[in-house]
Amino acid sequence: MIKYERFTLTNGLRVLFHQEPATPMAVVNVLYDVGARDENPNQTGFAHLFEHLMFGGSKHIADFDAPLQAAGGQSNAFTSNDITNYYDVLPAQNLDTALWLESDRMLSLAFTPKSLDVQRQVVIEEFKQRYLNQPYGDAWLHLRPLAYLKHPYRWATIGKNIKQIEDATMDDVRSFFHKHYHPRNAILCIVGNFDLAFVKDRVAYYFGNIPQQVNNIRKLPTEPEQTKFRLKRIQRKVPVGSFYYAFKMGKRLSDSYYLSDLLSDFIGNEKTGILYTELQRKKRLVSEITAYITGSVDEGLFIITGKLNPNRSFEELDEALWPVIAKIQNKRMSKSALQQLILKLRTAKAFQDQGLLNRAMNLCYYELLDTADIVNTESLRYEQITTTQLQQHAIELLDINKCSLLQIQPK
C-alpha cells in the first residue's frame, strides 16, 4: 500500500506527496499531460523536442543541470505518445533546489535562438542514429501509420520526418509551450521524509505564483474500426527478416487492457510461451519471438514480433502462426497457469514499488488517468480475470481482419 496526500494550488497544479521516512533522498516528479498525440500532424516531434528544450535554460536559470548537480542530484526525462515526464532525484535537504528549477521552467523557458538550434540538432541527430541508421530502427515509423489511419498514434514520438523539426520556428515553439506546459496541465509528485505542512509550504512558495492558464481541450479524431487485414513490406540493410503483427486493443483503463496484458505475458514468454514453443523450439522458423502491448492511454496495440531464422520465409511463418493463434483461441488456459501469471505480475509490481522514483512516476501517471488510488487497486483488476474471459478475449483480439502486419526484408 502506497500512502499519499493530494492537494491542488489555486493555479490548478495538482500535487501528490508520498512520505518515506526510510530514505535520505527526495524525488521531484513533474508529469505534463502532453505527448505526440497532441501535436499538429504537420508539426510532429514537438513534444519530444521539448523534452530536450526544457533542459536548455529558463527565465532565471541559464543552466538547469549545474545547480542540480551541485546539490548532489540528477535529472532526466522521457516522452511518449501520451505524456512527457521530468524527474529529479537529490538529497532531501536540497529539495528546494529541485522545486526552484522545475518551477522556473514551468514559469517560462528561455526561448533563445541558440537553445532552439542546439536542441534541434540534438533531436535531428537522435532521429538519424536511432531510427534511420540502425537495423530495424524505422520499423515503428512504418508500423504506426499502417495500424492507425486517423488517430495521432499514427506517428512516433520522434515525429514523422526530420524536416518538420528542421522547419520549427521560434513562434511555433513558444505557442506549443504556452499551450501545454503550465500548472493546470501538470501533476507534481514529491517523495521523501518530509511532513505535509512543509511540502505544502515549499510547493506554494515556488509554484503558487505561476499564472493560471486555461486547459487545452483535447479533441482527437476517432480511429475507425479495422475490418480488413493490412500488409506492408519494406526492404532494409538488415541481417534477417523481421515481422510485426499488430492488433488493436482497448484503452488503458478498459477491462480489455488487463486481459490483453495477461494474454501477452502468457503467449509471449521467451522460454515457456506457446509462440516460442511452437515456432522457435519445434519448427525452428524464428530466432526470436515474443508478444507485448504498447500500454497506450487510448486504443493501443497488441504486438507479436520477432526475427526469422536464415533461409526461412515470411510465408512459412505466416502459414504456421495462424494455426498457433487458433490453438490459443480454442484451448482455455489452466487455472494454475493463470495464478502463476498473476503472481508474477504481483511480484513485479512489489519489486517496482521499492524504488522511490517509480512510486513518484506511478502516482502521477495514475492521477492523470483518473486517480492516484489506482496504484493500490490495479492488481485487483488482474485477480478478477478468469480463464474463460481470457479465452474469449483471445478470440476477439487476435482476429486476422483486425491485424496490421509489417515485414522488414533484407536487401
Task: Write a brief structural summary.
The protein is α+β, with helices and mostly antiparallel strands. Helices cover 43% and strands 19% of the residues.
3D architecture notes:
- β1 and β2 form a beta hairpin.
- The chain is built from 15 helices and eleven strands.
- It has 411 residues and is of the alpha+beta class.
- The chain starts with a strand and ends with a strand.
- It is globular, with a radius of gyration of 23 Å.
- Helices cover 43% and strands 19% of the residues.
- The longest helix has 20 residues.
- The model has no long low-confidence stretch (mean pLDDT 95).
- It has a six-stranded mixed β-sheet with strand order 1-2-6-3-5-4, with helices on both faces. A five-stranded mixed β-sheet has the order 7-11-8-10-9, with helices on both faces.
- α9 crosses α15.
Shape by Cα distribution: globular
Which residues form runs of ≥5 with pLDDT under 50? Answer: none
Helicity, as a percent range: 40-55%
Mean pLDDT: 95
- Compressed to H and E, one letter per element, the order equals EEEHHEEHHHHHEHEEHHEEHHHHHE
In spatial order, strands of the major sheet run 1-2-6-3-5-4
